[in-house]
Design goal:
With 290 residues, this protein is mainly alpha-helical. Among the domains are: 82 residues, Arc Repressor Mutant, subunit A (Orthogonal Bundle), CATH 1.10.10; 74 residues, no CATH class. Helix content is 29%, strand content 7%. The strands form two sheets. A two-stranded antiparallel ribbon has the order 1-2. The chain has a two-stranded antiparallel sheet with strand order 3-4. Helix 3 packs across helix 4, helix 4 crosses helix 7 and helix 5 crosses helix 7. The longest helix has 16 residues. It is extended. 18% of the residues are buried.
């Protein structure tokens, strides 16, 4: 993490600067006016290239600011961040992927001395910079290329997954149910083992199915029906295709029916029998017919 908290104060700004005074005259209405106080402790320097990024979502920008403010060694995994913020694992995972694609995060998997595989996250406050002052420098020699497969054909790069349908109202309970459905697919077919990243990508598609009235227990049966017998090279891509092409139509709108009127019990003025009616009177047996 590159968090800066220095005791050195920045140069004082002039009191006559237009930035410290609200606009007057023609520009007095509209637009933001800054009422700034200079921080001396507990602050983090954030570049405008991040705060005013034209392509990052507001959630990704806020998440990057939070991560840059944390001390080195603080947990920044999806579970830790979803426990800290209300957005949930799916939205936080998507925001982390945004930051990674724009160079504000680097995530690598490393094996510790005990053999455990951990994710190492590096926060970059200036994307494109070669090396961090407190981190390892990049290697000067290129990494060796993976050995070719049999027949001399190099391994193919994994293509990005196709976008999946999105729910009209992404309620948190729908996404939680969708994640559970996807995580349980391996019990239907062991070839449908999905990574956490695959589940985050596919969960909105399953939520769209649930939103359209498909029961959660029926989704695995539909997605796993008539699977190919040969090994599945990209199970997540197959599921993304089926979630898109087999998306059911929305449920037709049905106005809510009014419940039947249930009148209170009345005692018949003639025979004292109980009967239901909006007002006191006589029951049907005691009411003369005309």
């Amino acid at each position: 993490m590159d968090t800066r908290d220095t005791s050195a104060l920045p140069p004082a700004t002039s009191r006559n600067s237009a930035k410290n005074h609200p606009p007057r005259g023609r520009n007095a209405v509209g637009g933001v006016v800054h009422d700034n106080v200079r921080h001396a402790t507990r602050f983090t320097v954030i570049g405008n290239h991040l705060a005013q990024h034209a392509e990052l979502s507001l959630l990704a920008i806020g998440l990057a600011v939070h991560i840059q403010s944390l001390p080195t060694g603080a947990p920044v995994g999806i579970k830790a961040l979803s426990a800290r913020f209300p957005e949930g694992t799916t939205r936080i995972a998507a925001a982390l992927r945004e930051l990674e694609s724009h160079g504000y995060l680097r995530r690598t998997r490393e094996r510790t001395a005990s053999g455990q595989v951990v994710t190492r996250t590096v926060s970059c406050n200036q994307p494109g910079r070669t090396g961090a002052p407190n981190g390892p420098k990049p290697r000067s020699t290129p990494e060796p290329k993976p050995p070719p497969r049999r027949g001399g054909t190099p391994p193919k790069r994994q293509r990005a997954l196709l976008p999946v349908p999105q729910p009209a109202y992404p309620a948190p309970d729908l996404l939680v149910t969708a994640i559970g459905v996807l995580a349980g697919l391996r019990s239907e077919d062991e070839r449908l083992y999905l990574s956490a990243e695959d589940v985050d990508h596919l969960a909105p598609g399953v939520a769209a199915w649930l939103e359209r009235g498909v029961p959660a227990e029926a989704v695995p049966r539909i997605l796993t029906h008539d699977l190919p017998r040969e090994p599945l090279q990209r199970p997540a891509a197959l599921l993304a295709h089926r979630l898109t092409t087999q998306l059911p139509p929305p449920l037709p709108f049905r106005p809510r029916e009014k419940p039947p009127t249930r009148h209170p019990l009345q005692n018949c003025d003639t025979c004292d029998r109980a009967y239901r009616a909006p007002e006191p009177g006589t029951c049907s047996g005691c009411t003369p017919t005309t």
